[in-house]
Amino acid sequence: MVGVTISGELARDAYLYAYSIDEAYKFLFETTIEPGRAVNEFQLLRDLADDTYTAHPSINNDTLHLQGWFDVGAEPVVVTVPDFDEGRYWILHTMDLGHYTNAMIGSRTRGARGGRFLFASGVWDGDIPDGVDEVVRSESDLIKVMARIMTTGGDDLEAARNLQDQWKLETLSVFLGVSGPGQPIRDYPDPKSTNWLARTNFVLAAGSMARADAEWLTKYHDIGLEPGKTEFTPEQLDAAERGEQLGMAHIRDLAPEMTNAGKLLGTRADLQDGPRDLFAEGTYLGQWGLPPVESVYVKVESGSDGQPINGAHGKTYRARLLPPEVSEFWSFTVYGSDDRLMAHNAINRHSRGDRTLIMDDDGYFTIVLSADVDANAENPNFLPIPEKDAYLIMRMYGPSKAVQDGEYLTPSFDVT
Question: Mean pLDDT over all residues of the chain?
Answer without folding.
Answer: 95
